[in-house]
Design brief:
It contains twelve helices and 19 strands. It is α+β, with helices and mostly antiparallel strands. Strands 1-11-12-13-16-10-9-4 form an eight-stranded mixed sheet. The structure holds one RNA strand of 93 nucleotides.
RNA sequence: GGAGGGAUGACCGAGUGGCCGAAGGUGCUCGCCUGCUAAGCGAGUAGGGGGUGUUAAACCUCCUCGAGGGUUCAAAUCCCUCUCCCUCCGCCA
């Protein structure tokens, strides 16, 4: 990453993510200074080592003098090392704030500047009830007690909704198994280290719940654990691509969203999600990105939901993503498209932090793998869309593909 | 929660202050030998950072023996902290 300091294109790609040029300048300057100092320190260390080595061969007459000499070099070395570690620490701190550069195919701009790639399906008018009202009427969504026990943005799913929830999970997992994904139920509490390596900290720290007493963090997505599956490993090329599907509850503080989506369960602190994660050869990551997207489109298509695909603009990308597609589904009660899934190519951003590499061909250096992730099924939110699109005269019709898993075809308001 | 034991290269395993980036073995690669197979013989075989170099080769240098810190002229080896694994006891299932 720092090796790409000389490529002006990279710099531009980073600046498109709304990073101040001053930060980049400072990092580059620090880097220059760091390397110079490192050279100097290494030379001193080499001399010191040589002096120290001379001691072992010397007989007792010379010994005292040689030790004194080595000792002196040691003093100088230590002084220089202090300077080096200071500059290293500062460099690291700043360098960690530099996001993954945006891909060339990513549009400029912010939240509203995403490029709509395609639109699939019709946009029906609002149903009689929005998903919250309908969910309550069906006895699917219970918030009163949940708010009392846990606070705003928490809810219980009840009755048939629970079976629909697990039907979605089961169905999605089976689809992914057919696509070659290895299913994983990972831990949802992780150490800080895991958050950093997966690329969430420091940037998204305020979105994460912390369990202070044990210094653990509740994951916002199973991606964190899936990423760590090959941490520190050098994979033989034959093991790639490696694809995993994770199921877990996800916890998000949703800081900074006060007043948004306060009705129903569109935006809650806790939800279940089936996630896809791929480790691939660097040359394969663009193709894999399209592949993950096509799986998402297939799943949403099978559920019969109308959607559009958006290529997210540079300023709206997270730190780790070089490129991201969101699939937004039409939410009839609001008369607009709302995000259901997203799918990112991190390239080697988190692979560097995780130290996950592929072995190079004979004589070639090992390379960092590329990692990608995408939502297969955000269960709660999928239910939201289904509650609006499958509302027929006060009756909820179970999407056809889920019926084998639920064992019932519809639910009537009681 | 209490008491011990451990973590070394792809793997097994030696190594209690300098000659250790690391014996030996297995595996793997290359070569030889053999009519195929097995056996045998010889050689090679860690990763990462920085630098010189037009790419590559090559070379220089530093770091890495679970992680981090300390002692020392010198640490795989001594001290401290942490993580993980194993055994025993307790506890809960």
């Amino acid at each position: 990453m720092r090796a790409l300091r000389d490529d002006p294109a990279i710099r531009l790609a980073i600046e498109r993510k709304r990073v101040s040029p001053e930060l980049i300048d400072e990092v580059l300057a620090l880097d220059r200074g760091h390397r110079d100092l490192q050279q100097a320190v290494e030379q001193m260390r080499a001399r010191q080592k040589a002096a120290s080595k001379a001691v072992s061969g010397a007989d007792s007459d010379d010994r005292a003098g040689l030790v004194a000499q080595a000792s002196e070099l040691k003093q100088e070395l230590q002084a220089a090392e202090v300077g080096l570690s200071e500059i290293t620490a500062r460099l690291n701190e700043l360098a960690f704030q530099i996001p993954n550069p945006a891909d060339a195919s990513v549009p400029d701009g912010g939240e509203d500047d995403g490029e709509v790639l395609r639109i699939v399906g019709d946009t029906p008018p609002p149903p009689p009830m929005d998903h919250g009202q309908f969910g309550s009427a069906l006895g699917f969504i219970e918030t009163d007690h949940a708010v009392g026990a846990s606070g705003a943005r928490f809810a219980s799913l009840m009755r048939e909704a629970v079976f629909i929830e697990f039907a979605l999970v089961q169905w999605a997992l089976q689809q992914l198994r057919d696509e070659g994904f290895v299913a994983v139920v990972p831990p949802t509490l992780v150490r800080e280290e895991a958050m950093v390596e997966a690329g969430f900290f420091p940037t998204d720290r305020n979105q994460v719940y912390a369990v202070e007493a044990d210094e653990l963090f509740l994951v916002g997505t199973s991606e964190v654990l899936l990423a760590s599956l090959h941490r520190g490993e050098r994979l033989p090329p034959s093991q790639l691509p490696a694809r995993y599907s994770g199921v877990s509850s996800c916890f998000r503080r949703e800081a900074g969203t006060y007043g948004k989506d306060t009705t129903g369960i569109f935006r809650v602190h806790q939800f279940d999600k089936v996630e896809m994660f791929s480790f691939v050869e660097p040359s394969e990551s663009d193709a894999e990105h399209e592949r993950l997207l096509s799986i998402q489109e297939k799943l949403i298509g099978l559920l019969g939901l109308p959607y559009r695909v958006v290529n997210i603009a540079a300023g709206d990308l997270g730190a780790a993503a070089a490129k991201k597609y969101d699939i937004e589904v039409w939410l009839p009660s609001e008369g607009r498209y709302r995000e259901l899934t997203s799918c990112s190519n991190y390239r080697d951003f988190s692979a560097r932090r995780l130290d996950t590499r592929v072995e190079g061909a004979k004589g070639q250096a090992n390379q960092f793998v590329h990692t990608l992730n995408g939502t297969a099924c955000a269960v709660g939110r999928t239910l939201v869309f289904c509650l609006e699109h499958y509302q027929r005269d006060g009756e909820f019709i179970v999407p056809e593909v889920l019926v084998p898993f639920t064992g019932f075809e519809s639910v009537t308001v009681r």
